[in-house]
Amino acid sequence: MTTQGSKMTLQGSDLAVRFGRTVALDGADVTISPGEIVAIMGPSGSGKSTLLHVLAGILRPAHGEVRLDAQRIDNLSDSRRSSLRLRSFGFVLQFGDLVPELSLRENVELPLRLLGRPRAEARRRGAELLGHLAVAELADRRPGQVSGGEAQRAAVARALAHKPSVIFADEPTGALDSVAGEVVLDALTGLARKEGSSVVMVTHEARVAAYADRTVFLRDGRVAA
Amino acid sequence: MSVSRILLGLLEPHSQHGYVLRRRYDEWFGNSRPLKSAQVYATLGRLDRDGLIDLTGVASGVGPDRRVYAITEAGVGELDRWLDEPEVPEVTSSRRVLFAKVLIALSSGRPAEPMLDRQRHAHLDRMRELRAQRQAGDLLTQLDADFEMYHLDADLKWIDGAAARLARLAALVSRVDDAEKESR
User: Fold this and answer.
1) pLDDT digits (tens, 9 = 90+) for A88-108
2) Domain B3-84 of CATH type 1.10.10.10
3) Residues paired with A39 in a beta bridge
4) Are B123 and A43 a contacting pair at CB < 8 A?
5) Which CATH class for the A10-223 domain?
6) Which residues in chain A have their CB less than 8 angstroms from residue B152's CB?
7) What is the rounded distance in angstroms from the CA atom of residue A202 to the CA atom of residue A209?
8) Which of A186, A206, A224 sits opposite B156 (nearest CB)?
9) pLDDT at A1
10) For chain B, domain boundaries
11) What is the pLDDT of residues B84-107, one digit of tens each?
């Protein structure tokens, strides 16, 4: 069983995924060390997002395995994978994906509340992160009432709220202009480094990949040399 | 980099001696290649010879460092011309080498894909260095790093585009080869 807050190695070995006749992953191997920031790049259709979904336990591979430290996670039941994602992973998607009916503050507190943490603790952590990300004064607004960049910073705060082992980011700045994108990336990578979370980040932009410690380049569902 | 025109521009606000000009140059542009003293004096000597600057005095101290120069009317005209004229849009020869390497690799029957992969990694490594410099640096450093990063980004887009079309390019190169064999 994984422990929330502890930092672990994430390893995908010989991963294969097919969608009908389309081969999305074809024997991909990747290891993410604790605290490491890794960018996944590759042409359209090379399997970038599929690899991220498999490593994050959202998608089950047809072949191969995914381990978080010693624990194999790809063959867990749906409910156990879901619970593991909540405890050990954080997510930043291209369009923020915040709950539109909740304020930024409530969105950031959500993972902690779902994990059963006391309200006061969630409140404290939410305020701390929203402050770090310079959106504290917008805490009571809903995602639709703030700019795309501000919403994405709140999404970063939400991803970090429960101090996950790994944060998965799929084109985290894809919907932002370059300046707003830089603010989000500085926040995401800066705070992840400070708190020891790993980041796996899919991007097609080299300037985004430059924030990572290294880049994994995919071609035809495999990691290119 | 047009050192002579930059020195001319640095001289325009008020007369200066070589030492101050060199210090300012290095502060703004020296990241890529700091100026040597001899280069400054040789350049100032040429500008003086061409009537674009005048020697107006010698500050106390020893050596060519202490010669004070001022821009002339002709110098201001030349500076205007240089600033007004757009630079010729062109890629540097080192970037063309990438294109040449791909064609030579394919025409000699070598795989070009691993070469492009290695180049991509080298470019991404450099971009990481620049990003770190950018983060730690002031506004000048940031803009200097941005300039190189955007160019590297353009190279990477070209590398991706070339990598996606290697099979077609290899077929094209081999057709040219075959046609040449037939004509012999």
Assistant:
1) 999 998 876 899 999 999 999
2) yes
3) A201, A215
4) no
5) alpha beta
6) 206
7) 8
8) A206
9) 41
10) 3-84, 93-183
11) 888 887 777 677 888 889 988 888
SS3 sequence of chain A: CCCCCCCCCEEEEEEEEEECCEEEEEEEEEEECCCCEEEEECCCCCCHHHHHHHHCCCCCCCEEEEEECCEECCCCCHHHHHHHHHHHEEEECCCCCCCCCCCHHHHHHHHHHHCCCCHHHHHHHHHHHHHHCCCHHHCCCCHHHCCHHHHHHHHHHHHHCCCCCEEEEECCCCCCCHHHHHHHHHHHHHHHHHHCCEEEEECCCHHHHCCCCEEEEEECCEECC
Q: Kindly determine whether residue A225 and residue B156, on different chains, have CB atoms separated by under 8 Å.
A: no
What residues of chain A lie within 8 A of the CB of B111, using their CB? none
Q: Count CB-CB contacts under 10 A for residue A33.
A: 14
Domain ranges, ordered by start, for chain A? 10-223
Residues of chain B with a CB closer than 8 angstroms to some CB in chain A? 113-114, 117, 120-121, 123-124, 127-128, 130-131, 135, 149, 152-153, 156, 160, 163-164
Amino acid residing at B154: A
